[in-house]
Write a structure and sequence with these properties.
Blueprint: H1 8-17, H2 26-43, H3 49-52, H4 65-80, H5 92-112, H6 119-127, H7 140-147
Length: 152
Amino acid sequence: MDPNKNTREEFTSHLVALPIPDFAAPKWKKLVQRSKVLLDKLAHHPAMATNLQQTYMTPANSKNNIYFQWDFVGRTLSMFYRVNPSLQGLSKQEKELWEDATGRTTFAKQLILDEMPGMLDMMTEKTDPGQKGAHPGFGDEILELAKHLDDD
């Protein structure tokens, strides 16, 4: 995939279509499966419509909360794929990456569910002050997915 040529929709489709190896540890498999579903739902949320057909590297038309979570969850998903799915014999770098990715999964859940009230809005507005007070809702389906994102 070329971030200067491929769209955000193509990047999303690519990540969602990556296979889950048969030998994947249950925890790895569960986090990756749930992240894929959430990423796809975020990508196809109405608030992403103006961003989805842009190339990955093009500055987003609308840097809203949905966009930021789409980006965050997508980057986290790609981190999972850089860790041995069996979670066996991990190098020091893979262990750190696993810890980062699982921590990011919890953080994504907290931001989407607003467990740290206003944090996502504040982060979005810091990057794009034009978003102040104009935050799209995630919708029930995304909220429900986020609730179970890091469940065991």
